[in-house]
Amino acid sequence: MSTGAPANSQGAGDHDTPPVDVGAIAQSLRPKASTAAVVLWWTIFTFLVFACIFPRPILIAIVWFYVVVLVWKRRERRARFHRNLAGFPCLSRATRVTPPKEWPHVTVLVPARDEEKNIDAAARSLLASSYPDLDVWFIDDHSTDQTPRILDTIQRDFPQVHVIHDPPVVEAWFGKSNALWQGVLQIEREQGQHRDRDDRYFLFVDADVMFEPEMLREAVALAERDRLDYLTVMPHLITKTLAEQFVLPTGWKGIAEGADHEHLNDPKSFPIGIGAFMLVRESTYYAFGGHKGLGQWHPEDTLMAAAVKHIGGRVGFAWTPDLMRVRFYENYRQVKNNTIRKMRIFFGDQLALPLSMMALRLSTTVMALPMIAAGVVPQLLSGNFNWTLMLLAIAGLVLYVDEAGEYKDVNKVAAFHPAIPWLHPISGLLRVWFAITFAGQIIANKPMEWRGRREFGAT
Questions:
Q1: Residue 365: closest CA among 399, 335, 393
Q2: Domains of the chain by residue range
Q3: In Å, what is the CA distance from 401 to each residue of 191, 364, 396, 425?
Q4: Which residues neighbour 280 within 8 Å (Cβ) at sequence distance 6 or greater?
Q5: How far apart are CA 163 and CA 178, in angstroms?
Q6: Cβ distance 90 to 316 under 8 Å?
Q7: pLDDT per residue over 205-243, tens digit each?
Q8: In 138-271, which ranges are continuous DSSP H helix?
Q9: In this predicted structure, what is the pLDDT of residue 16?
Q10: DSSP of 102-171, one letter per residue?
């Protein structure tokens, strides 16, 4: 079954006003970039540069104090990452979750806009699932490439597939939330609104995610076993180009690092949502207002988790090394544009943020090699040993090695070349450049764009 609908319709469906004020939740979750952080990190960076130019004993002593504190804080953060990986469920071929007595029905919704490179392989991997009670809805969100024709071919090959072409676009909504909500409305029109929603799930997945056949079984079994209303799963991140490998793995690690497996359902803990895979009980989805409540707010995955927690639902987080994988971007341009876009989505247009990001990266990643050079080169040129310069060089070496340690065990959640951790100063320079571009966009008041479409709504 294939449906089409005119664009630019203003209707958002016949549902009442969403019961959860997602806008208020979004505002409460947004981190505040402080002027104090900007001043602190630029002061540290300036001091490190000054110490390299004028390596006096008192200055080197202060440098060592900074290095010790930084390494200590980093070790705490890395320990949290390892605790979380051990504490959160791992879905893999090597382990199996006890299946439920009856498998609930799962309706998968996949928004797709200009996904011709990935959609065929990703869709067929999803449709090869061994899950016994499944139907799949693809929402072609006004694609301008071959995506519509690819989806029509897939629909002819698989009877459980439904395709919606060019759904109505609600003004001031973000594209992904709009497409998914229009898909939900179409399902209601065709299947009815009054079925038992407690025994059914919606699964929202991205159009570039690759699945192994048993992935859905394991995820649903976990949700049923732990009586979850919402489950998000971190797929294994695939990176190929250098730009991907320099920027994405540690950012992906940061999601698992920022979670707290012991207090995930604490109302005060930060919500974790990954748009690549979000399994939500239908009754819970409608209870917080679904994507109608999320339509004008970003990021919709984090806010969905927050909304579920807000109404008292139980949320879960899992990761997988081998049952699901995704490659988000394919080249430097995509990495840069989408990294900046995600920063703007999550933090808003706060100029203090990119300014502090620049100084942070300069002080923690980029300065390691200049410190080593400032300590070693003068000794080589003069032929004389100097303890002050040697301590400066060792401090730089400690920073360099410790930063490489940030990649320890990250290969459990992301793929990258073994040499990448030792080339991390390049990653630091890339992030500085991204922060400069980010600041330029804020100053120029440049709107966010995604695949040729300006994004509306409130971040």
A1: 399
A2: 29-85+334-448, 90-235+274-330
A3: 58, 11, 9, 11
A4: 201, 202, 203, 204, 229, 230, 231, 304, 308
A5: 16
A6: no
A7: 999 999 999 999 999 999 999 999 999 999 999 999 999
A8: 147-157, 175-191, 215-225, 242-258
A9: 62
A10: SPPEEEEEEEESS-TTTHHHHHHHHHT---SSEEEEEEE-S-SSSHHHHHHHHHHH-TTEEEEES----T
Which tokens belong to 21?
């004020």
CATH class of 90-235+274-330: alpha beta
Q: What is the mean pLDDT of residues 42-47?
A: 97
Phi/psi for 349 (5° steps) reads -90, 65
CA dist., res. 414 & res. 271, Å (int):
21
Question: How far is residue 267 CA from its own chain's centroid?
Answer: 21
pLDDT for the residue 197:
65
Say how many C-beta atoms besides its own lie within 10 A of residue 80's C-beta. 16
Grouping H, G, I as helix, E, B as strand and the rest as coil, residue 277 is: strand
Specify the amino acid at residue 231: L
Q: Are 339 and 434 in contact (CB under 8 A)?
A: yes
Map residue 203 onto helix, strand or coil.
strand
Q: What angle do CA 440, 445, 448 make, to 5 degrees?
A: 90
CA-nearest of 339, 351, 276, 293 to 33 is 351
- Token look-up 């090394």 returns 321
Angle between helices 147-157 and 119-127 (to 10 degrees): 20
At residue 125, what are phi and psi to the nearest 5 degrees? -70, -40
Structure tokens, 413: 């959640």
Q: Which two tokens stand for residue 63?
A: 């440098």
**Any idea which residue has 């630091």 for tokens?**
428
Pairwise CA distance, residues 122 & 115, whole Å: 10
* H/E segment holding residue 297: none
By CB atoms closer than 10 A (0-12, 13-18, 19+), residue 296 is buried
Residues with Cβ within 8 Å of residue 78, at least 6 apart in sequence? 257, 405, 406, 408
Residue 117: name the closest of 414, 327, 339 by CA.
Answer: 327
List the structure tokens of 397: 């070496």
Q: ∠ CA(275), CA(280), CA(285), 5° rounding?
A: 105
- If you average pLDDT over residues 338-366, what whole number do you get? 88
Nearest one of 251, 151, 133, 140 to 203, comparing CA atoms: 133
